[in-house]
Amino acid sequence: MSTADRTGCDTVFIDGLEVFANHGVYPEENALGQKFVVSVAFFCETRAAGEADDLALSINYGEAAQFIDEYLRAHTFKLIEAVAEQVAAALLERYELARGVRVKVEKPWAPVGLPLRTVGVEIERWR
Fold first, then answer.
1. Which of 62, 65, 69, 101 has the maximal Cβ count within 10 Å?
2. Element (H, E) at 121
3. What is the mean pLDDT of residues 38-66?
């Protein structure tokens, strides 16, 4: 999508959703699981929802958070890049009102052998 097509997009977002799931390159990550922190921005038009005060005209962030949690628990990926890519694709498929999404996946317990707050990846995908 071109920059011109993005004008007028509002944002519905989920910030810092904690999900315990089994993703990682190492077998113990897949066996034991770990915490992932997911943030999502849906780029969409919210004017109609705001004017009508009608959730059906927007993206239900509570339902979306539940979907993300269930999706990450049901699937296993080696790379957080794959987690972000697949979550973005699933959200765009599920939420027709979204023109695009930004998905950020953080892995605060990453096995890097050094103290750190988090590592992660952030992507944007548009229709």
1. 101
2. strand 120-126
3. 97
Q: How many CB atoms lie within 10 A of CB 29?
A: 19
Query: In the chain, where are the structural domains located?
Result: 4-126
Contact 80, 23 (CB under 8 A): yes
pLDDT of residue 113 exceeding 60: yes
Distances in Å between the alpha carbon of 88 and those of 8, 45, 47, 51, 113? 21, 18, 23, 28, 29
Class of domain 4-126: alpha beta
The helix or strand, by DSSP H or E, that contains position 81, with its residue range, turns out to be: helix 80-94
Instruction: Tell me the catalytic residues.
Output: 107
pLDDT tier for residue 3 given thresholds of 50, 70 and 90: low
